[in-house]
Specification:
The protein is mainly alpha-helical. Strands 1-2 form a two-stranded antiparallel ribbon. The chain contains three helices and two strands. It has one domain.
Length: 79
């Protein structure tokens, strides 16, 4: 699990790698509009990171998962 303070940098580097390394694979046109690699990378990475964040919040809100995480925290702090 990525700490929340790391999310902006994760997004930045995902977008940067999309522009630098995957620009050749970005679709040139969507409908009748031409888009550049930066807009495509921001849209693509933003959508999957947002979905991942929502799913993560849902999963860690499930009571057995929350209880297990609390148990692991107590075990880690007791040593």
């Amino acid at each position: 699990m990525v700490p929340p303070e790391a999310e902006p940098s994760r997004f930045f580097f995902a977008v940067l790698s999309g522009v630098v390394f995957f620009a050749a694979y970005a679709p040139v046109t969507i409908g009748n509009k031409t888009i550049d690699a930066l807009i495509y990378s921001v849209t693509y990475n933003g959508s999957y990171l947002a979905a991942e964040g929502i799913i993560t919040i849902i999963v860690i809100s499930i009571p057995p998962v929350k209880k297990a995480l609390d148990y692991v925290k107590r075990m880690a702090n007791s040593r």
